[in-house]
What does this fold into?
Amino acid sequence: MRLAKYLAHAGVASRRAAESLIADGRVRVDGATVTDPACDVGEQSRVDVDGERLRGPEPRVVYALHKPLGVVSTARDTHGRQTVVGLVPARGLRLYPIGRLDADSSGLILLSNDGELANRLMHPRFEVPKTYVATLGGPPISDAALRRLRAGVELEDGVTAPARVRREGAHEIAITIREGRKRQVRRMCEAVGHRVTALRRTAFGPLRLGTLAPGKHRRLSDAEVERLRAL
It folds into this structure.
């Protein structure tokens, strides 16, 4: 197995991040520093990262979490804020979030130690759909604004891809996008004249938030994980 893939399967980091660790000289195989991510690693190889020996590939798990407001979507935070990783009992596994939700947004986020799956779900070319419910300020949203969102709107970093949008109420919409630009839904709504006052992600690919309460989590079944891989 390639060293970068071994580290990803061991839950150290995504494969891309693992390649950076290797290039920085932080990984040793059988006592020797290795900087080639393609280095072959066998079952009996000893692999150390930053001086700590890995126990081999971890059992890969994926959790769904209902991220509450104010919680940050990182593994750790330099300002001491609560993180999504802190809400899921890792039981010794190295979990990290798949994608991000802003601190002022809530809803469905995935956490896993499967770096390969995480990389696929976050890569733009796979266009994994994500659905949000947005509460909007200002006047009731117009049909014209809905048509603009569906067609794609001009942002400072280019025109967005068409979105699926339906009206949920005079001041609420459900919107599905396949891109992952920073604060994209908020910026799209602002571009059509509406400030987002609340934003909740309700679906990630085939997964739904459902009745999962804020701050609660559940481990995905093998069937659910395979549906994610099929994306």
Observations:
- Residues 62-124+210-229 form a domain with the Alpha-Beta Plaits fold (CATH 3.30.70.580).
- The mean pLDDT is 92.
- DSSP finds six helices and 15 strands in the chain.
- The first strand starts at residue 27 and ends at 29.
